[in-house]
Specification:
By secondary structure, the chain is of the alpha/beta class. The protein has helices spanning 4-14, 22-28, 53-68, 89-99, 127-139, 150-163, 181-189, 238-248, 264-274, 308-314, 318-329, 333-339, 364-376, 380-394, 396-404, 406-413, 432-436, 441-446, 456-469, 476-489, 496-501, 510-522, 530-537, 539-552; strands spanning 40-43, 72-75, 106-108, 114-115, 143-146, 195-198, 207-212, 216-221, 228-230, 254-257, 281-284, 288-291, 294-297, 492-493, 508-509. Helix 8 packs across helix 9 (264-274) and helix 19 (456-469) packs antiparallel against helix 20 (476-489). The structure holds glutamic acid. It is found in: Cytoplasm.
Length: 555
């Protein structure tokens, strides 16, 4: 057991370069001047180069809550795990979230710079701050250096396992917890590597009742682990950085993933040791996915749709993704949207207590439906603009077609866009190539064509008869009457009742005739309205296609 004086002296030995006190630091981070209800929240990712769709989920919630309250949303970068860090990791996060319209009021603005008065906003630049608080804890006997090697820790673990005891560095197993000053001094003089650990005063048998902003009332056991606060390289662990950063940055409450829920007692003990006011937590459950009959976490390794880059590359409409995420967050968003079809999502009163407590299902097919619905409501010009933006990054060929044949493209997008039967076949901008391929001769040539089983001579007659009367100035009714004439002339029925009562009398129905026209002109059995398709393609292309079909398929 060390005396008060010994601990004070030890803190000087360990942190001889640290001259500031916790009070000096706290003075630099004064209370914010907030009006009633204004929230300050932060999003605190690590720059690992991978942005999970769950990050969009969490940060969108923080963004909306702060925007709605006229508060501040902060981007803090947690880069204390140097192994997982990638180059440009910060700008990747910023750009990824920016894509979804999530902006920050404070914090990092690129890989190097930040804005705001509560920085630095990147943990590697806050080393001095963490050391000031670590020094203070050591001097008060609330933290201490531990010189255990990996091997020693492993053998403690093994012994605990053999005895069937809880594993970890706690109580009597915490070898350096009660080391004398001389023992510590000798280790330091021998230049042994050390970490700084919490001197836990908790008791695992005591229960803490706490109210989580999302999960509601929860009961946890007190912490009794002497967890690492500063690693041997001097960098803080998440457990130590979180109470310090969130206190100094004057955060209203902590919104974070529920993988941290089990560490909450540890965090609460560190808050207490530091003399800080306890912050409230809202633990967000992970996004889940159905795998066969069971639910599991959306996984970075197994599910391509876990990555934000998936949505960006595939060109999911941002608004569609945001709407779906809000549906997942608060299921009443759906009804709100029906009642308020034109409102900005900022008008939606997102509520933490309405979150799914166990883990919400992220269902890509539902997302697709929402995106389809969203795109179906856009004007052709809006589709053009968004598709252009996507193609400028991801599809050079489509990009140049959009640029060079703008009017043609807009008229393609305008097919079945107005009126009662609006097309709902575009989910995302990467669907555009397959949507427009029938309209561009080079793409049409490369396309796999479909076919029907019908006598070639008969097909030829149908196409020739149609060509003879085809006139692009016809109204839809005139056009259809001509298709019917072709049908009758070639022995097809134009009256379904009549056809059903005596099918043998006919070669087929008028729909079969239209199918031949469709196949000749588009190469596909299913397309948007054929009349409109022909109108957009124009006479020359329609005639060329029919000729081409006769000369290649029907020979
Ligand atoms: N860097 C931590 C993470 O990415 C942050 C957790 C938190 O928001 O406090 O999980």
């Amino acid at each position: 057991m060390r005396t008060i004086e010994e601990n004070k002296y030890l803190s000087e030995l360990l942190f001889s370069d640290i001259k500031e006190s916790p009070q000096d630091i706290l003075k630099k981070y004064p209370e914010r001047n907030l009006k009633e209800g204004e929230l300050v929240l932060r999003f605190a990712p690590s720059p690992t180069g991978f942005i999970h769709i769950g990050n969009v989920y969490t940060s969108l919630v923080g963004y909306l809550l702060t925007k709605r309250s006229n508060g501040k949303f902060i981007l803090r970068i947690e880069d204390t795990d140097k192994v997982r860090e990638v180059e440009n990791g910060i700008s990747q996060i910023i750009n990824g979230l920016e894509y979804f319209g999530i902006h920050f009021d404070e914090g990092m603005i690129n890989d190097k710079e930040s804005k705001g008065d509560y920085g630095p906003y990147i943990q590697s630049e806050r080393m001095n701050i963490y050391k000031v608080f670590a020094k203070d804890l050591v001097s008060k006997g609330l933290a201490y250096p531990c010189f255990c090697t990996e091997d020693e820790l492993e053998s403690i673990r093994k012994e605990q396992t053999d005895l069937g005891t809880r594993t970890g560095y706690w109580g009597k197993w915490a070898k350096w917890r009660e080391a004398t000053f001389d023992e510590v001094k000798r280790a330091l003089d021998s230049n042994w590597t050390f970490v700084i650990r919490l001197y836990s005063n908790g008791n695992i048998d005591n229960k803490i009742n706490s109210k989580d902003l999302i999960k509601g009332g929860i009961t946890l056991s007190e912490n009794d682990m002497d967890s690492v606060l500063l690693k041997s390289d001097g960098l803080p662990t998440y457990h130590f950085a979180h109470p310090i950063d969130d206190t100094l940055m004057r955060i209203s409450f902590v919104l974070r993933g529920d993988e941290w829920l089990s560490s909450q007692p540890l965090h609460m003990e560190i808050f207490k040791a530091l003399g800080f006011k306890q912050l409230e937590y809202g633990h967000i459950s992970p996004l889940m996915k159905m795998d066969g009959d069971s639910k599991r976490k959306l996984s970075k390794r197994k599910d391509p749709e876990a990555a934000v880059s998936y949505y960006i590359e595939k060109g999911y409409p941002v608004q569609g993704v945001k709407e779906y995420i809000l549906n997942v967050a608060n299921s009443n968003f759906y009804d709100w949207r029906i009642q308020n079809p034109d409102e900005d999502i900022l008008e939606f009163n997102i509520r933490l207590e309405k979150f799914n407590k166990a883990g919400a299902l992220f269902d890509i097919s539902k997302l697709n439906d929402i995106c389809k619905e969203y795109i179906s409501k856009l004007k052709a010009q809006e589709i053009y603009d968004m598709a252009l933006e996507w193609a400028s990054k991801f599809n050079e060929d489509i990009h140049s077609k959009l640029i060079n044949q703008k009017d043609y493209c807009i008229s393609i997008f305008n097919i079945e866009r107005e009126g009662s039967k609006v097309r709902k076949d575009i989910v995302k901008w990467s669907d555009i190539p397959s949507q427009v391929e029938i309209f561009f001769d080079d793409m049409f040539m490369d396309m796999d064509k479909e076919s029907v089983d019908m006598d070639k001579g008969l097909q030829k007659n149908i196409l020739n008869d149609f060509s003879d009367t085809y006139y692009p100035g016809d109204s839809v009714q005139e056009w259809f009457n001509k298709v019917k004439d072709v049908a009758i002339k070639n022995g097809f029925s134009v009256d379904s009742k009549e056809y059903e009562s005596n099918p043998k009398k006919f070669k087929g129905k008028v729909g079969d005739v239209a199918m031949i026209l469709r196949l000749a002109v588009t190469g596909k059995k299913q397309t948007p309205d054929l009349y409109q398709v022909m109108q957009v393609m124009g006479e020359e292309r329609v005639r060329e296609r029919i000729k081409g079909y006769i000369n290649t398929v029907l020979v």
